[in-house]
Amino acid sequence: TMLGVVTTDAPVTSDLWREMVRISANRSFNQISVDGDTSTNDCIIALASGLAGPVKISSFNSIEGCQLQACLDAVMQGLAKSVAWDGEGATCLLEVVVFGANNEAEAAKIARTVASSSLVKAAVYGRDPNWGRIACAVGYAGIDFDLNDLHLSLGDIPLMRSGQPLPFDRVEASTYLKQAGESHGTVKIHISIGNGRGCGKAWGCDLSYDYVKINAEYTT
Amino acid sequence: VCVDVGTASICIPAAPIVIPEGPWKQIPGGVTAAKGFKAAGLYGGLRAKGEKPDLALVTCDVDAIVAGVFTKNIVAAAPVIYCRNVLKNSNTARAILINAGQANAATGNPGYQDAVECAHSVAQFLQVRQEDVMIQSTGVIGQRIKKEALLNSLPRLVNSLSSTVEGADAAAVAITTTDLVSKSVAIEAEVGGAHVKVGGMTKGSGMIHPNMA
User: Is A39 on the interface with B (CB under 8 A)?
Assistant: First the structure.
């Protein structure tokens, strides 16, 4: 289960605050996955005291509305990433960034599908730069794209370009994954599927033996 | 973060939270960084094992505009149903009570009444309306809240409320379950010419694939 409480002293109207929280949740907590199980209790409650100023922010399109949304996104993404980083049994955080989609929602869907893939997560734990599993998850995400536009990279190491696998230094790529695991750091996967302006991010973690151990022993 | 009493069993480190770069600066404190907020966390005897804090309270000195996003799981926990019902008719809130240990999910009508009773008791202590109190629960599914232990702890919890970083940290620890780290962060930025603070805390380690609306 994930729970969250967000507070701000920004003066904001009720309707706008609810819309802002909805948007930020979609850009943060709704973009993480540890094990693919949706809890009965997931909940974020966000309170705005309004004590920072007298003038209420009421427009989503105003400068101050955009500024507050950006602040809310930053806090909620930071918190959401920390949940994925602390995933049961995890040795590293997985950050998936998708570019070139038609819109943010499509990019986000692909990113989360990759971050949620058990086979991608297990490969990361095994320090296996398995571009095939990543490409597979991109393909079944339910978003249409031209295979010839697919580019993948692991950190700074390109693995696929224009839908074709690239020669790469397997030891270097595996070392990248190993170092992230040993330092409980971040593995970054970059994906491009076209020339659209939509981009999105998702976060997960690797899948280790410890995940099974923890949940086999946790009585429900 | 060490809170309440000094035993090693209740200490967990804070998560290294990386905030995206932007026109803001990270500041100390989590849910208490913004003006008007207090928080507390303590051990109330709800957890099955250990004496890590398991009860948190976040309050606001004024009627705060409230928003919530909740799991779309049809088998929603009692506190989720309770909060959704309250937010249908109310735009403001004054407090959030959170317990760890029992999820109060799949507990039927008695579980829902537990959530209502807990909100009612907090409201009495804070002298606010019952619908001003939100409830969150986490822990073992299928178990009702250890209500007696919770209610007995409320006076101490309310008396522990603080606008300090320590108050925010204590609350962040108290909401954890299998988490290895507590998760709390705050930022400050200029918004529309005013210095605005946004802070938060979260918990979560397993059963994580949120789908909230």
Answer: yes
pLDDT at B8: 40
Flag residues of chain B having pLDDT under 50: 1-9
Closest CA to B31 of B150, B204, B206, B203: B203
Q: How far is B81 from chain A (nearest CA, A)?
A: 9
Q: Which residue do the tokens 């290294």 mark?
A: B16
Output the average pLDDT for chain A: 97
A175 is catalytic: no
CB < 8 Å to B144, chain A: none
Q: What is the per-residue pLDDT for B48?
A: 85
Residues A115-149: b if buried by 16+ CB within 10 A, e if exposed: bbbeebbebbbebbbbbebbbbbbeebebebeeee
Q: Do B138 and A44 touch (CB under 8 A)?
A: no
CA distance A14 to A17: 5
Q: Are strands B37-42 and B55-70 parallel, antiparallel or unpaired?
A: antiparallel
Helix axes A14-27, A63-85, angle to 10 degrees: 40
pLDDT in the model for residue A219: 66
